[in-house]
Amino acid sequence: MDLSAPSGQATASDLTVSDVVVNFQGLRAISGVSLHLRCGEVLGLIGPNGAGKTTLVNVLTGFQVVDSGTVRLAGEDIARWKPHERSRRGLVRTFQSVLPFGGLTALENVEAGAMATGVSRKAARESAYQVLASLGLADKAQRRVDTLPFGEERRVGIGRAIAMKPRFLLMDEPAAGLNDAECDELKGVIDGIRTTGECGVLLIEHRMSLVFRLCDRIQVLQQGATIAVGTPDEIRLDAKVRQAYLGDEAI
User: How many C-beta neighbours within 10 Å does residue 205 have?
Assistant: First the structure.
């Protein structure tokens, strides 16, 4: 049985990983992992530190070569595509550490993302304003991003990714360092991305309260292998997952 696949038939627009293996100097970091993400879906990717989550995202985005297995975007094998080629085709990521252009304004940061789609400077600026407004940051457009509070700075980074008009947005621990109120704002942002139906989100996150409130499905890795995939309710009750990762944490 393919643990990665959601119910129903795959569509031509999906992002799929099949039986990927990655070795680091003889150490197997990913062992036959498959993953399936649809547009309009939020898929959580969880597991202990060292389980292979970030390595898998690096595989998806072209920063890590696989030893075997396939990665397909809309049915097309992208194994030989460079990271910038993948991002131009709609496979976009945010990083665990905030990486804004500190000397630029919030608007200029988001505008840089929009420019990557190949539009004119004028169109990129208009798109950036719209993205900032959707994130509740319109009044911060002219503020240098390195003067903003951490939560707002992180939202600007997400806005830069949204401005690239992703088909799939891969988010590596976006809630790291956020307080509860900022996490609620982040949930609203990701819900907004999902409700357009045009973008799928892969969410790597250790804050389980966010994962279980937000995700349609959750995939659990342990020691480089998938041990469970299911709805939040199914994962919450899965004995293997509780033993490997969740413990007795109430979610």
Answer: 22
